[in-house]
Amino acid sequence: MSTPNNKKALELLFERPLEPVFTARDDGKVVFVLPDSFYNEQYADVKEDIQSRFTEDVDLKIPLRELAKKPDLSFTKPLGKRRQFSLFNSLHRSIAARVIDILMNAENEELFIATCAYVKERVNPFLFQYCYAVAVQHRTDTKNFEIKPIAETFPQNFVEPAVFIDARAEGELVRNTGNRRHIDIPRNYTASDREEEQRMSYFREDIGVNSHHWHWHLVYPGYGSDEIVKKDRRGELFYYMHHQIIARYNVERFCNGLAKIKILNNIREPIAEGYFPKIISSLNNRTYPARSANSRLHDIDREDAKLEIADLERWTNRIIQAIDQGFVTDTKGNNIPLDPKKGIDILGDIIESTQLSVNPQFYGSLHNEGHNAISNCHDPDSRFLEDFGVMGDVTTAMRDPVFYRWHGFIDSIFNRHKELLSPYEDANLAFQGIHVSKFEVRIQSLKASPNTLLTYMEKSDVDLAAGLDFGPKGNVYATFTHLQHAPFEYVINVNNVDDAPKLGTCRIFICPKSDERGTLLTLNEQRLLAIELDRFTVNLVPGPNNIRQSSNKSSVTIPYERSFRKVGTKDVPTDEQRRAEFRFCGCGWPEHLLLPKGKPEGMAFDLFVMISDYTGDAVQQTNEQPDVCGDSSSFCGLKDKLYPDNRSMGFPFDRRLPEKTLNDLTNKFPNMSMIDVVIRYNDVIVDRKA
Questions:
Q1: 532 versus 170: which is more confidently predicted?
Q2: How far is CA 202 from CA 52, 207, 686, in A?
Q3: pLDDT, tens digit, 9 for 90 and up, residues 145-178
Q4: How far apart are CA 311 and CA 360, in angstroms?
Q5: Which segments constitute the Tyrosinase copper-binding domain (predicted)?
Q6: Which of 259, 362, 434, 534 is the most exposed place for a label (fewest CB within 10 A)?
């Protein structure tokens, strides 16, 4: 059980990541008292002055324990303190894995905190924050501690730079935090409307979307000890989470009159899309490099990265050959079948790739090295001493239009495997005795018409203070504009014609009816664009059952408060149930982007529901502890548990279906239903209600 001082220490190690650990934190009220040996060479000769300066006029002093044996951190030297850190870079990943092991192996919580403070002073700040967050989430003594949102720790990765000038000025000039104005983040600062891809900036540059991507990779690191990497269906989850991102992005493109992405399947062709991110790396105060339109990929020959473009082509060919053959070959020459149950999980680990890959030397690191090739194409041999672009950083990669082209290509490889599997048979899809008799969706308003959903723009706040190193005390808020929808609920009437109660899983997806030109989509095209909205268990008594499910209970999303929550002690709920929900809860798709944008005149969709037989869905959990943040399990799984659905992720749309149209499918199976819905976009901006 953590002591109050330990809880405060864990919280403060997330604050102001570029400041030395000895500076005052929590608005100048708390300071760490370091053993003399913790001061690095830069400050060792002036430690007495530092101690007297920062320990005066504070409310709390937290002494840190001396370490009997200091960790040897010489292996981190290739990643300097002002270099950018990338999880896609193999050298950086190997360094991170060793740092995580050091932090995980601390004997108890107090030694863990002391080790973290010692390491923080000596390694790259972004490397430390990543390794620290991974360790906090996976150690048994800290795993229920809340992780600060990355947008608040490194706000420079998410916010237009001019905002920080105003934020620092506001913090210094207006001492009373309650009187500080909220700094507005401009909506369109990366391109003008002459660039058609800018129509998608509200999605690509959304703070919640990019925070989710970072947090997912935090929960599912690819390298380290087995206890943090070898998680249930990790490879399949990599496939499915990114597949859903691509489906959502393509549907959003239809909403904005744009065609589906052109996948990046020819890496020798110029990349038509340019991207000028206009955000600053807090580590070296440089802007992330831009990529001009029609840039080409080149062999990479940098100090910390080597790659031949031909390697990407070789790895692609080997993976596709394996899929076509129906098996992969491990390092011992054994053939492992790519069967319908495990095949996608095996491919996920190979394609990403992680240390779980069955043959990393042969199948390579296609996904990761593709990110590296794109992110370094502006300076492939480092002759201009430029760092990598936004595609090299998990916190910023989703801002770039080419992210979706690259992941569209990766998704096409996974889908090649899925297309080769036999279509689902009737026995897989039916649920005997279960009939869906009514299905509709309603905005939670008495005046709303059924089956019409509403979206609009909303202004919300994010606190920048924790990431303003050497900056003002107190909260400093910035206001950003994002897509939002009116809350709604599903109404599903189900009849159980059997005499006994049954358990089922309710699965809800939304599919576009047509593309950007109004051309109707085939069922197989809809299958690849099906967006999961919710999945939950239902108890069906004999006779009629009336199911009502609110949109804010989605198994895909986390609410605004968990994407952008404050994590100071005073902000933690006191109620035990709410406090449990507050923990570990940064992984999940942002709730404000649950629905596609739609169109001002209304955009037609098919809303699909299926009640599947729970006997085929059930998972026997070995850990019977209450779920922590299980409400976002579709993309993030369950903490310390098996994935909570035995079916393939995305079922029933993950494989080909036996009918020609979605209407034919739902008419054939009474446990399914489909309705026409319209999403109407109202072009207004509404202030978020507190």
A1: 532
A2: 48, 9, 15
A3: 877 777 777 777 777 777 777 777 776 677 666 6
A4: 13
A5: 400-411
A6: 259
CA 435/CA 611 separation, integer angstroms: 9
pLDDT tens digit string along 65-119?
A: 999 999 999 999 999 888 889 999 999 999 999 999 999 999 999 999 999 999 9
In Å, how far are 221, 351, 364, 582 from 355, measured between CA atoms?
A: 10, 11, 11, 31
Q: What are the φ/ψ torsions at residue 100 (nearest 5 degrees)?
A: -60, -40
Contact 218, 133 (CB under 8 A): yes
Among residues 160, 352, 458, 581, the one annotated as catalytic is: 352
Q: What is the pTM of this model?
A: 0.90
Task: Report DSSP state, residue 538.
Answer: E
Distance CA(686)–CA(482), nearest Å, equals 10
User: What structural domains and CATH numbers belong to the chain?
Assistant: 4-142 (1.20.1370.10), 196-420 (1.10.1280.10), 426-464+488-566+575-619+628-687 (2.60.40.1520)
**Strand partners of residue 442:** 489
The closest alpha carbon to 395, from 131, 149, 226, belongs to 149
d(CA 667, CA 659): 10
Q: Is 502 helix (H, G, I), strand (E, B) or coil?
A: strand
441 three-class SS: strand
Calpha distance 136→528 (Å, rounded)? 36
Whether the CB-CB separation of 583 and 145 falls below 8 Å is answered with yes
d(CA 505, CA 492): 13
Using alpha carbons only, what angle is made at residue 569 by residues 148 and 220, rounded to the nearest 5 degrees? 25
Indicate the residue type of 613: D
